[in-house]
Write a structure and sequence with these properties.
Layout: H1 3-26, H2 32-54, H3 69-74, H4 87-104, E1 118-125, E2 133-139, E3 145-153, H5 158-174, H6 181-195, E4 202-210, E5 217-224, E6 230-232, E7 238-240, E8 259-263, E9 268-272, H7 274-277, H8 288-298, H9 304-319, E10 328-335
Antiparallel strand pairs: 1-10, 2-3, 3-4, 4-5, 5-8, 6-7, 6-9, 9-10
Helix pairs in contact: 1-2, 4-5, 5-6
Length: about 325
């Protein structure tokens, strides 16, 4: 491996180290049970950096060969070459290569179906020509309901857009066979950990709305480090739906808890990306969750489309300028 390659992987590792350190120190979107796993990754990165310094980086621990360069590109801490991998590990890689081929052919969004018993509205604004926010509506495999997904890729522009395309494609493929939100998110995380550069992260929330008779609708969800969606009750109370697992793409062994809520007529579920709460005005002040919560409470009588139109207008006035610095996506689902 020449000097240029070593410098490239050193840069990847340092970027990953910096991102993980910030993640641990900020304590945002990271459950306590996952912090230890992140620290273990930091140790592996430090060991990889040491191997770059002593000239052994990329060498296979089991033979006299080297780890394949394309695998180091995805996982720079790899220490075992393909020839020395166990049979089941090779099978996983072959499966993921097959999935990647399907993803390439399945990037265009499908038509969004209506959700029984709900009024639905969406708005999405990209800071640049290509955005890194993602949302989708994925029918359950048995047709008994709909899953609503919202996600935010680290960064913006072309790199975030390419990552978004991969997340979109993988989710659509996995969702054909996996119904439960927690299982779907867990499988996506395992795939991302093996197939995206180590410097990339994704936050994502998945809500499953089951079709059923009666006034109440049961909803199950998993939140992978995403900004807490807000459940606005018809009486004005707001419930914050906090993360139930870690950010995607950090560690393949992260676990994701599944929770459930019920919605009655007039209740509204509001999903959003950080382009809403982190919008800044000319003084550097952020819009923040408290302001968003107050807006939803004061405008709870509006239908979803009008609610989102008024929110974007308020954010535009708050910012004092038309160009957004970050991607912004909002989804409102109101129980009829």
């Amino acid at each position: 491996m020449d000097i240029g390659d070593l410098e490239h992987f050193r840069t990847l590792l340092l970027e990953r180290e910096n991102n993980l350190s910030e993640l641990v120190n900020s304590k945002d979107h990271l459950l306590a049970k996952d912090a230890g796993k992140v620290r273990e990754l930091l140790v592996e990165i430090k060991q990889s950096l040491d191997r770059i310094e002593n000239g052994t980086y990329g060498a296979c621990d089991c033979c006299d060969g080297y780890v394949e360069a394309y695998r180091l590109e995805i996982e720079p801490t790899s220490r075992i070459c393909l020839d020395c991998m166990e049979k089941h590990e090779k099978a996983i890689l072959e499966e993921e290569l097959h999935i990647a081929g399907k993803i390439y052919r399945s990037l265009l969004p499908e038509k969004v179906d209506s959700i029984q018993g709900f009024k639905v509205a969406t708005q999405s604004i990209s800071a640049g020509t290509i955005g890194g926010d993602y949302y989708d509506f994925l029918p359950l495999p048995d047709g008994s309901g709909m899953r609503v997904v919202i996600a935010d890729m680290v960064g913006k522009g072309l790199p975030a857009g390419l990552l978004m395309s991969n997340v979109q494609g993988a989710l659509r493929i996995f969702s054909e066979d996996i119904g439960k939100p927690a299982d779907l998110v867990r499988r996506l995380n395992q795939w991302l950990c093996r197939n995206i550069p180590m410097s990339n992260f994704v936050t994502l929330a998945c809500f499953c709305i089951e079709s059923q008779d009666g006034e109440e609708s049961r909803i199950t969800y998993a939140n992978a480090g995403h900004w807490p969606p807000m459940l606005l009750r018809s009486g004005g109370e707001v419930e914050m739906l906090e993360p139930t697992g870690g950010i995607l793409g950090v560690h393949k062994e992260f676990t994701f808890e599944q929770k459930s809520i019920s919605m009655s007529p007039g209740d509204l579920l509001f999903l959003y990306t950080d382009g809403v709460t982190e919008s800044r005005n000319g003084d550097g002040e952020m819009y923040e969750e408290a302001r968003l919560k107050k807006f939803l409470q004061e405008h709870r009588g509006l239908l979803p489309n009008s609610l989102l139109d008024n929110l974007l207008q308020e954010i535009w006035v708050f910012r004092g300028r038309s160009k957004f610095d970050d991607d912004l996506t909002v989804i409102a689902l109101q129980k009829e």
